[in-house]
Design a protein that fits this description.
globular, LOG_fam, single chain, binds adenosine monophosphate, LOG, 42% helix, seven-stranded parallel beta sheet
Length: 198
């Protein structure tokens, strides 16, 4: 896979254990050292700040995308090379998707999971063909993976849509798995409408 930029979703806070922020910093650093650019939510606190600091400290390039009304609340990062200020949350997510070639989610709260699931469901309906990775620090995503198993066993989710989802401990393990990613065909809104009518 040809990956240039990686979009990272993660918490605006740091979580209970120091290892969460350490994993975020390490991911940012690993992204820079592997020669990728980081795309993220533009904040300077919590997991978001840590991932950006990791990339900046290692000499890598960072693009932050933040809605104007969150510039103060999420303390927009002053050291990232590019900070795009957009109007809405929807614009932020669409722009973060547009900029990145793969998405990695670190531990975080409801906002993080919302962003993760939007990317997962966009992939499921064929609006993008990008692999999604979860960094499973402190087994944080074990229960989420159990929920995916349940969605499949109860026949609310087709197993083939798991082709886009990978889980690992760090960037290296995820990028190795991304090589096995075989995207399902992309469908446009027009195709989806046609499918709906037939
Ligand atoms: P959290 O995981 O709750 O700490 O939030 C992490 C990031 O997700 C923060 O930058 C939030 O601004 C963002 N976020 C929260 N809710 C949403 C949403 N509905 N859509 C997109 N991003 C969100």
């Amino acid at each position: 896979m040809d990956i240039k930029r990686i979009t990272v979703f993660c918490g605006a806070t740091s979580g209970r254990l120091p290892k969460f922020e350490e994993a975020a910093y390490k991911l940012g650093k690993d992204i820079a050292e592997a020669g990728y650019e980081l795309v993220y939510g533009g904040g300077s606190a919590g997991m978001m700040g840590a991932v950006a600091n990791g990339t900046v400290d290692a000499g890598g390039k960072v693009i932050g995308v933040i809605p104007r009304f969150l510039v103060e609340r999420e303390m927009a990062h002053e050291k990232v090379q590019t900070l795009e200020v957009v109007q809405t949350m929807h614009e932020r997510k669409a722009r973060m998707d547009e900029l990145g070639d793969a998405t990695i989610t670190l531990p975080g709260g409801a906002g993080t999971l919302e962003e993760f699931f939007e990317m997962y469901t966009w992939g499921q309906i064929g609006l993008h063909q990008k692999p999604l990775g979860l960094i499973n620090t402190n087994n944080y995503f074990d229960d989420l993976m159990a929920m995916f198993d349940k969605m499949i066993s109860e026949e609310f989710l087709e197993e083939r849509y798991m082709n886009q989802l990978f889980i690992g401990e760090d960037l290296e393990s995820l990028v190795a798995q991304f090589e096995n990613f075989k995207p399902l065909p992309v469908r446009t809104y027009k195709d989806l409408q046609k499918g709906h009518r037939s």
